[in-house]
Structures are given as structure tokens and as C-alpha cells.
Amino acid sequence: MSTIPDLATLHALGPAQQPTYPDQAAVDSAVAQLRTMPPLVFAGECDELKGKLAAVARGEAFLLQGGDCAETLAGVTADNVRNKLRVLLQMAVVLTYAASVPVVKVGRLAGQYAKPRSSDLETREGVTLPAYRGDAVNGFEFTPEARVPDPQRLVDVYNASAATLNLVRAFTTGGYADLRQVHTWNTDFVRESPVGQRYEEMAGEIERALTFMQAIGADPDEFHRVDFHSSHEALVLEYEHAMTRIDSRTDAPYDVSGHFVWIGERTRQLDNAHVELLSRIRNPIGVKLGPTTTPDDAIALAAKLNPHNEAGRLTFITRFGAGRIRDGLPPLVEKVKAAGLEVAWVCDPMHGNTFEASSGYKTRRFDDVIDEVQGFFDVHRSLGTWPGGVHVELTGDDVTECVGGGEELTDMDLSSRYESVCDPRLNRVQSLELAFLVAEMLRKA
Ligand SMILES: O=C[C@H](O)[C@H](O)COP(=O)(O)O
Ligand SMILES: C=C(OP(=O)(O)O)C(=O)O
Ligand SMILES: [Mn+2]
Prior knowledge:
Bound molecules: erythose-4-phosphate, phosphoenolpyruvate, manganese (II) ion
Keywords: Amino-acid biosynthesis, Aromatic amino acid biosynthesis, Transferase
Enzyme class: transferase
Helix content: 40-55%
Strand content: 5-15%
EC number: 2.5.1.54
Order of helices and strands: HHHEHEEEHHHEHEEEHEHEHEEEHEH
Family: Belongs to the class-II DAHP synthase family.
């Protein structure tokens, strides 16, 4: 059985991107509360997801991972959670049907509340305050009071994640996600868009196929529910450590705050706390790999995080940027392949493509996002490896945060509905467009 280092030992490693809490007694109290809370997910569910990700690593399935850059506590409403789930279900159906490949569905939700930042401080009109680090840490409001890290927020995040998961479980098993509902997910603004109409046609074909399958004796219960798993960046050590528990079946530690947790680009230092903690848990895990990653870094991370070379355990989520992926990714993939390492390769086409628009909003171009995914597919095709999935920041709402796409959103549109508290997300129309384009790439792969 692998043991878990205590929190003080992890902090002694000098982890990056941690909140500076003003009151250690308050931290101890929040952590003690969290340690008494029931698991949010079960170890057996994490194992199930690991099995599905093993199929991704073997080239037999495709991962769709998506959700907000940063969830907010105020965003935990039935409508908001349903909308996110709905767009992910629509995208998954497009990918499954158009590319005839099993799709593993994972939300960036029920725990995605802590953000690494480029700068510790934020300045607005001459006033400088601590940066917002996600609702798990401090408040988004630009006041000195809101920006003080408050450890009690970790307990709020636990409760918000429990409520979110409860809704997700109800939606995915209680009939909403029934494949025979494929038409009814196509509502609101999206229905009238060209991509909504394309979806409508496909939904008609799926309905006819399901009717046919029922007629020849398929069990309709097979269409009734979908498997859906949760994920987030494991960033705040207090939260992830308190939620790491020993599984009674296997005596092994699992981080039961989410099914899949990942290490971010800014916290993947080999000898540091995030890699150390995640090396000890048995969940399926991911690591973001940006353009500064060397092939040796990737090999060393795999050796530490997946020493038994178990398929499904480790996912490399690459985020190079559209301009760098074609040159930057091949050396990593070649070396990992040559070493015989079992990893799932997934493309995050968001984080290497962020820039500030002339209007001052952080944004991304839809075309850059697509170009990075295309580059990812091209590299894997040329090396004979499997482009295992996409990891995207999206929302089920009609927001205006990324420019381009079929609606041709421009810089000038960004202010009309920019709601993200961190990075710009694809809206529902852009997300569906991405799904159709990726389905075409997959078909060719
Ligand atoms: O989501 C990712 C990071 O938190 C984000 O890209 C950092 O953004 P910043 O450069 O605004 O801090
Ligand atoms: C912080 C994120 O990404 P990265 O670590 O790749 O910058 C993120 O996924 O929101
Ligand atoms: Mn982000």
C-alpha cells in the first residue's frame, strides 16, 4: 500500500500556485471538516473510468473532456449544470455517430474551482490587489476583502461539488440523457443556427437507427443512461489531501474529490508536491504539457506517475498553441512511443491560444482552436499514434468569449455576454461546430 505524505511534508517541497492563507487555525479547521465529509465519488467509479481511458490509450475510444475554465459557487443552478451537460451530450453524440467511435465523457465540473495564475497580483485603474484564484480560494469581486484567501471556501466547494454531482447523476441516469431524447437536447438559440440544423438532421438519422434496433430486439434500457465522469485540476493541496482516502476494497489511496484529476502546466515540476501527491493516488490522472516540455520531462513524469506502465492511468494533455504544435509535439510523442509507454494523448486546444483582444478581454480565435486540433491529428497520424481526445473550455450558454466560429463573433461582440471569471469558453454553437469538425478529423484518422 502506498502511503500519503502529510500536508506539511508536501508544503515543504515548495509547491507553486498555493493560496497564502492569513490564518493557519482557520485552515486547520476547514481541513478537519473536509476530512469528515463523505467521498464525492467512489474508488470503483474511478477504476471504471481508468478502464475506459485504457481503451483511449489503445486507440479504441476517444475522450471528450470539457466544461468551464473556472466553475463558480453561484453557477451551481439546475439550469447551468443541465446546459453544460446538454452541450457535452450533443457533442458526444456527434462524435460517436459521425465517427463511429466510442466516446468517453468527462466533465470539467464538480470541483473545477481553483485557478493557477500568471501573476499573484491584479491592477485595475491604479489599484493593485491579490489576483483572483478561483472560488475555492478567494472572491472574484475586486475589493481587498473579497481577495483575501478564505479556507472555509474549500468546504463551500465540497458542498457545491456534491450538489453538482447529484444533479449530474440524476440527469445522466434519470432519463434526460436517454439517447431517444437526442432531438430534445437541440433547443433554444442553437436550433436555429446552421450547426443546429445539421445536428437536427443527424438526430433524425439516430432516431431511425434506434427504432430499427428496437425493432430487431435491442434492449431499450441500453439507450437510457450514459456514463459520465467528473474531473478538475488538483491544485489546492489542502482540498485534495483532505479528500484523499483509503479505499476499503484495495487498501489503496484515491482522491475522492473527482474521478479524474490533473496536474496543471504550472505545477508539474517533477520533485514538487502536486506530482508527489498524485503519484500516490490510484485515480486516473492527467498532466498538462505545454511548449517548454522536453521529451525527457515527459519520460520522467511517466516514470514517476505511472511506474507500472498501466494503460488508462496517465493522460498527457498537450497545450502547445496552434503555431507550435506541429513542431513541438512530435519529439514528445516519438520518445514516449519509443519507450513503450502507455499514455492517452489528448489535445487541449485552448490554453496555448489565449490573447488579449483590443477591447481588453481575454479571448481565443475559433480558427486557432480548430487549427491546433488539426495539428494534433496530423502529428499523430504521421507518427502512427492515436489522437485520443480533446479537452476544451466550454459552456452550454450563448456567451461571447471566443471570437470567430459560424456566428463570426468579433472583438466588438465580446462585451455583450462575457461571463467567464477566468478563461474564455466556447459557447454552445461553437462547441457543436467543434464537435462536427473533430468528427471529420476522426473519420479520416
Ligand atoms: O485557466 C488557466 C489559467 O488559470 C489561466 O490561463 C491563467 O490566466 P492568467 O494568465 O490570466 O493568470
Ligand atoms: C490552468 C489550466 O490549464 P494549463 O495548466 O494548461 O495552463 C486550465 O486547464 O484551466
Ligand atoms: Mn483555463
